[in-house]
Here is the input.
Amino acid sequence: MLNSRKLVRALALAGLFALGGVSSYAQICSGLLTTTNLGVRPEGLTELTGDIVVNCTATSTTPGGGAILPTDFTVLVQLTTGVAITNSTTTVNPTMTFTPGTGTLVNVAYPGGLVNAISFQASGVTSSAFTIGGIRINANAASAAGISSVLATLIITTVSTGGTTVLPLANNPSLVATILPKSLNFSIIGGSSANATTGSAVFPICVSNTGVSGFFRFTENFSNVLRNQAQEGPGATNGTYVRIIVSNIPSGITLLVPNGVLTTGNNVLRPISGISGTSATGISTGYTPNTGAGSTPGGDPSYSGGYGAASSEFIYWVESVGASGGGTSNSTATVDSLSIPFIARYTGSPSIGLGTATARGGLGPVGTTTAIPRFADITDQANSFGTTSCSTTLLYPYVTTAAGFDTGIAIANTTADPSPLATPNQSGTCTINAFGTYGSGATVPGAGTTPTINAGTVWAASLTDSPIFAGGSAMGAGFTGYLIAGCSYQLAHGFAFVSTYGLSGANSVAQGYLALVLQQNTGSRTMGANIEALNN
Here is the structure.
């Protein structure tokens, strides 16, 4: 009778000789697939997925009693349909590591026609486990397709003289990434501190030489959106960028931003390019729009999109921990926020453009095929600031040169004042417009302009005699009406004095009043929020 025990032993020995070693016992190894599920940013084009770990959990009786993987095998990793692996666009490939034991990775390939797949070939393996890491995906395209969960399916095959064997894997497929909702919110806030009221309302600005300020505000919708290069994972060439594109900047206006900012999670951000010089307050004293490739750290932060004329782009990157005085405990566990102060400064002379500047904010870099990470050009838009001229408009509601009367007017420039007010001094002219009639039916003269009125000085004139209207003409006798004086500086105040002309004693009559200051509105003074409310 044939001894069945001897037959099994003989067949096993024959298999060993045929396959070339003890490790061939692992051909029948069954494995357990475990993965790390990472939350990924939906704007990301190169988002890192979680590690994939395979442990050999069972084998035939192997000399030494250990469970080991096959000596040579191929792993095909296939992600959810519609999810593209983006490592293939760079020289940075995913990795396979073996522990405990060793192995050699002989090939990493992207199967033709399968954008969601990648294969690994291993040789000389003496390990019981391996880890695949560094797979990056286009989360933006997947998000647009309505995909939120990314699964990894593994097919592990070995080839022997006896044919191809597919190793069984428990927990296959397994989750490697969850595509999260929108990463950042962008808004503009005004005021002198980052705790000012949030919102995206336009900030009417009288732009002067000292400028006015607000904040570009970014707020994470979940933790770990803003990362330094190390936090971006294997193959990263840079930390996360934040981009601010300010469009329709009125002529004569320069935007200034700081050379370093700190997030609430202790992430330090530095400008990529185009921002130079700091004053004692830490605010940039000069800015050149970023028109070309940026400086280190890696990648190309240049922007070639079309957000309109008169645009400037500010780009900041999350600095590595400890670099250039950077943060030492960059937060990945808490929801972070970032407020970047800006100054809108008047540099034009003598006039500025009027209008509303808008700003867009989002993640970067964009427009490059080499940077990791990189992002789709997705931004939030908010109104940044609206410009009005630095001006005061005065109303003299009654002036006359009729019936023997004359009206004297005075305009003071009160931008000079004592400490602690310390108001920045301004200077400018005032345009005098007359509205009314002559008893004779004569034509009312056109608007005229005063000489420059400097801070701390007063200009005065007589309507009857002073050549303050168009063509150097005086008002002359016989006029009754009102005046509106538009002054190209703030804090103008006026006085009018109506008196009998050339008479004195019992026959003289005189009365004075303060000019009314009109609101700095655009459009009708009778409509909506522009309804007139005057003071002196």
In short: The two ends are 123 Å apart (CA to CA). The CA atoms of residues 200 and 206 lie 18 Å apart. The mean pLDDT is 77. The helical segments are 4-19, 139-144.
